[in-house]
Each structure stands twice: as structure tokens, then as C-alpha cells.
């Protein structure tokens, strides 16, 4: 469970990250720590990284598609379509996704 102060700090860092502003190594470590434990923080981080990569679009169609979030939000996706075992594909997933 996130405290209010942690959530606000995380959201402030993610806002800067999404805009392409400077984020320190300590702040990135802080984000990663929470992203590994909390599914919401993980999805916020993925969304911020997606926005950071696609913030130059002025086309209304592209903006609509980005708003719908239909594509993969993981810019560092390790998906290999040649793999047949779905379990292998999830081997790089955060701990909350993997089986125990």
C-alpha cells in the first residue's frame, strides 16, 4: 500500500519522466523499487515511458490511438514471436506477474 506522500512523489517523478525532463538515478531506483512491488506503479511507469517516446505526435489520429493505449506500453519489450512457450515469454516479467 502506498502512502499519500509516496504516491505524490512517484507521480511527480513520472510526470517529469513522461515530459522528457531530467530524472536522477536515485529517483529511478526509487521508482523501480515501487514498480516491482506494486502493479499500479508498474503500469504508471510503463505509461510514462510510452508517453516519453511518443510525445512528438501532432497528428490527431496518433493522439487518439495513444489515448486509447492499444499498443504495447513496454518500450523495452522482450517478446519473441518465435517462442512457443508462454511461460518463457513471462520470464522477464515483474514478480507480481510470475507464478509462485
Structure description:
By secondary structure, the chain is mainly α. It has one domain. It has helices at 4-19, 25-37, 39-53, 60-68, 86-89. It starts with a helix and ends in an 11-residue tail after the last helix.
Tell me briefly what this model is:
The protein is mostly helical. It is 57% helix and 0% strand. It has one domain (4-92).
Topology:
Layout: H1 4-19, H2 25-37, H3 39-53, H4 60-68, H5 86-89
Number of helical elements: 5
Average predicted confidence as pLDDT:
78
H/E order of the elements? HHHHH
Structural class: mainly alpha
**Beta strand %:** under 5%
Largest sheet: none
Terminus-to-terminus distance:
21 Å
Task: Compute the number of structural domains.
Answer: 1
Radius of gyration: 15 Å
Please provide the count of β strands: 0
Low-confidence stretches: none
| Helix content class | 55-70%
Key structural traits:
100 residues; mainly alpha; globular
